[in-house]
Design brief:
Radius of gyration: 21 Å
Strand order of the largest sheet: 1-3-2-4-6-5-10-11-9-7-8
Low-confidence stretches: none
Number of strands: 11
Shape: globular
Oligomer: single chain
CATH class of the domain at 5-250 and 424-472: Alpha Beta
CATH topology of the domain at 5-250 and 424-472: Amidase signature (AS) enzymes
Number of helices: 16
Strand content: 5-15%
Mean pLDDT: 97
Largest sheet: 11 strands, mixed
Bound molecules: glutamine
Structural class: alpha/beta
Order of helices and strands: HHEHEHEHEHEEHHEHEHHHHEHHEEH
């Protein structure tokens, strides 16, 4: 049973529900569904936090997110709590401060009930690469929930919290949202502060919500987004009132269909379902126009060069001396580094560090890293060109629905290809949202993705809200 925060809030404000009650309920459900492995930690103190918010509700001054039960991907710092990033190397590491997003959400009375499981250091597309075991998809527990924010998507889809935070470096919010049948928003790069987010690939990473409705994602963005002096890449732009803009008519917008994204390599059910939505948008008065993203095939190689290069440098700090796991019983410094890292990192992270170090090394830098930077610029330009004619671009979120656990773990390239439709938004820094639009022949959720111009989250949210509402009626 899932619920939206929007619905809960109505019951809270008219006295039919309490924060304490809802937190206890979700904690109980999370415990009873521990087989999903969606949460790495649950916070019993959240019951006391709920009592404090109940007192504020009684006193007539509830925050904007009063009683919103939140799961937080375990790569975002919450003061005094373990911050593992799904890795052995940080298994015993606790954060001494709150991320900016946590400060802002708690200031509006959101209640954090725990930290969600994830692929180690957010590297993966299935959440099978967590050092603490794979996460299961609640729709079908033989299948992956997607990744890397699979714990967050699984928790929201299973009704273990109202909303969960994820991070998206190459698709890690949208693809798991698609696999689990929930809403996932990747904001524009720089729209949300990264202060307190452990870095994977710093020029791609962004925090965003996974929720059971477009409205809930819009609401949480109003609180979370905006400039932060502690993150110099956060944008100094005002934050629109996303929730009030949601109700605009969809009819005035022009939506682009990228022909390259609906051609080869997509499951039939996924293609047909997305095409049906495009027809329905047309029927609702949305102008549909074909656009071209001619370099779509180059996005995966470019992303996996640039993201691994950045990761290899960001992960240098886990050396056994400054943070986390240290191999005991070795006296020699270099051996201590090697042994600590060898024990602390899992296979996918090691693969990425090696790839990233390789593409940055003298002699290969020009051939790989520099070339990939050029491809990134070209992809950004493709989007700029397309967005001259259209307000948003529609495509599937992923080429398939959720795959079976173990199906792709032995073939990294196959795994990487499940990001084919998501990585381009990270290369270009633009926002994207995935919403559930139907089921395939095995009853697995299908996600539709809308991409927008930089800092125009409100446009894709309005269109997503229109689709969500029309699917209800
Ligand atoms: N699946 C992609 C990767 O493995 C994206 C991960 C992410 O967005 N954090 O790199």
């Amino acid at each position: 049973m899932t619920d939206t925060y929007q619905n809960f809030r109505k019951r809270l404000l008219n006295g039919e529900a309490s924060c304490r009650g809802v937190v206890e309920n979700y904690l109980g459900r999370a415990r009873s569904k521990s087989n999903l492995n969606a949460f790495l930690q649950l916070f019993d103190e959240s019951i006391e936090a709920a009592e404090r918010v109940d007192a504020k509700v009684k006193a007539g001054n509830p925050g904007k997110l009063a009683g919103l039960v939140l799961g937080v991907k375990d790569i975002i710092a919450v003061r005094g709590k373990r911050l593992t990033c799904g890795s052995r190397i940080l298994e015993d590491f606790s954060s001494v401060y709150d991320a900016t997003v946590i400060e802002r959400l708690e200031a509006e009375d959101a209640i954090i009930i725990g930290k969600t499981n994830m692929d180690e250091f957010a590297m993966g597309s299935s959440t099978e690469f967590s050092a603490f075991g794979p996460v299961l998809n609640p729709v079908d527990t033989e299948r992956v929930p997607g990744g890397s924010s699979g714990g967050s998507a699984s928790a929201v889809a299973a009704g273990l919290c109202h909303v969960a935070l994820g991070t998206d470096t190459g698709g890690s919010i949208r693809q798991p949202a698609s696999f689990c049948g929930v809403v996932g928003l990747k904001p524009t790069y720089g729209r949300v502060s990264r202060y307190g987010l452990v870095a994977f690939a710093s020029s791609f990473d962004v925090i965003g919500p996974i929720s059971n409705s477009v409205y809930d994602s819009a609401l949480i963005m109003e609180v979370m987004a905006g400039h932060d002096e502690r993150d110099s890449t956060s944008a100094e732009r005002p934050v629109p009132s996303y929730t009030s803009l949601l109700v605009r008519e969809a009819g005035g917008f022009t939506v682009g269909v990228a022909k390259e994204a609906l051609s080869s390599g997509i499951a039939d059910d996924v293609r047909q379902t997305v095409e049906k939505q495009i027809d329905d948008l047309r029927g609702a008065g949305v102008k549909i126009k074909e656009v071209s993203l001619p370099h779509l095939d180059y996005t995966i190689p470019a992303y996996y060069i640039l993201a691994t290069a950045e990761a290899s440098s960001n992960l240098e700090r886990y050396d056994g001396a400054r943070y986390g796991h240290r191999r005991q019983g070795v006296d020699e410094l270099e051996e201590m580094y090697v042994e600590s890292r060898s024990e602390g990192f899992g296979p996918e992270v090691k693969r990425r560090i090696m790839l990233g170090t390789f593409v940055l090394s003298a002699g290969y830098y020009d051939a790989y890293y520099k070339k990939a930077q050029r491809v990134r610029r070209i992809i950004k330009k493709d989007f700029d060109d397309a967005f001259r004619d259209v307000d948003a671009i529609v495509m599937p979120t992923a080429p398939t629905t959720a795959f079976k656990i173990g199906e792709k773990t032995s073939d990294p390239v196959k795994m990487y290809l499940s990001d084919i439709f998501t990585v381009s938004a990270n290369l270009a820094g633009i926002p994207g949202v995935s919403i559930p639009v139907g089921r395939d022949s095995s009853s697995l959720p299908i996600g539709l993705q809308l991409l927008g111009r930089q800092f125009e989250e409100e446009t894709i949210l309005t269109l997503a809200n229109h689709i969500e509402q029309s699917l209800k009626s």
